[in-house]
Amino acid sequence: MIAQLKQKLKSKSKSASATKAKNKAKSASEQQSNQQPNEKSAQQNGFVPTPFNPPFWLTNPHLQTILPKFFAPKPPTYRREIIRDSLDESDVAYDFYDAYPIDTKSGQKEQTPLVVLFHGMEGSSDSHYARVLAHHIHAQGWHFVVAHFRSCGGIPASGRVFYNAGDTAEVHHMLQTLTQHYEHIYAVGVSLGGNALAKYMGEYAEDVCCEAAVSISSPVDMSSAAMNMQRFLGQKIYTPYLLNPIIKKALKNEISDEEIEAIKAVDRISDFDHIFTAPRHGYRSNNDYYRSASALPYLIDVAKPLLLISAMDDPFIGFTATQNDVSECVTLVDTDHGGHIGYLRYLPEQKKFDINWIPETVADYFKFVGIAS
After folding, report:
1. Which of 18, 20, 99, 146 has a Cα at 20 to 30 A from 313?
2. What is the pLDDT of residues 151-201, one digit of tens each?
3. In angstroms, how far apart are the furthest CA atoms of the chain?
4. Cα–Cα distance list, 168 to 96, 163, 303, 304 (Å)
5. Burial category of 164 from C-beta neighbours within 10 Å (exposed 0-12, middle 13-18, buried 19 and up)
6. Which sequence spans correspond to the domains of the chain?
7. d(Cα 217, Cα 98) in Å, to the nearest integer?
8. pLDDT digit string (tens) for 200-224?
């Protein structure tokens, strides 16, 4: 009897020790996971980017968001083509930075890869992220083009429709147009253009006209992004910067006197979307626009490689995707710092600032998924 009792107590002691060891290992694993958010998210699909580790004095998200434009290289000499939009209403600009001179009238498809950039709200080929990406892609020996949305790049929209974050039909039309001359196409989207591209990758799935894509600083949940923009700094600093140019464009378009008065009184992006963007693009309201245009619900259906880069301190984007929200084709890279399309580094050995982390990561990812050479 006593022997049986001793054996039972010994068995319980072993079980408790095993449970304790298991919990300790789990705790250590979770701690390591929390310490390395970039590597953890990326390793699930095998791609590990160079960590983004700015010095402590450069981690402020607003510095990361505002300063990069002052450190952008000069724009390259683009070759511009004007092509009609998907509705055959407006001309849009395609600004190419060719790896070498090409003959688009030869009838043969170019075999060197083409990287297409879809810009952010009121962006263009002159935006800081477009310039630095253009130069880095060119250095890889690849072709590059900025596909402008309607009314951007210095060409006014001719019809009633401008651009919006969920216009995947326009994204598909642009890529289809480029497939007429290029065999291998890779896409990059930034901010608003990044949401449109990510939504396109899920909505069109196997039928997308690119072999892989990267989406950067993208508001994949647009309702929470709109709420972010109503905070103090978003309202006072970022909103005027983004909103004033598009309001000027809207006032030059064919709009009623009532629309003019309403637009002039706007001081929030969500109000502008309710008055102008939503009704012009077939949405019932700004709420309907944000719900329908958000990429987040579509990420589970992505069928080709997609890298989604988000900074956890981004003052614009709101909620971001988690691994349970996406298909196995999507790689998530969530960095602690970076701001909105920022990723500004300081190189102490060279004593200079640098905004090449984004283009370096884009090129590394395309090489990882097997970009044609």
Report:
1. 146
2. 999 998 888 888 999 999 999 999 999 999 999 999 999 999 999 999 999
3. 97
4. 21, 10, 16, 16
5. buried
6. 69-221+298-373, 223-293
7. 26
8. 999 999 999 999 999 999 999 999 9
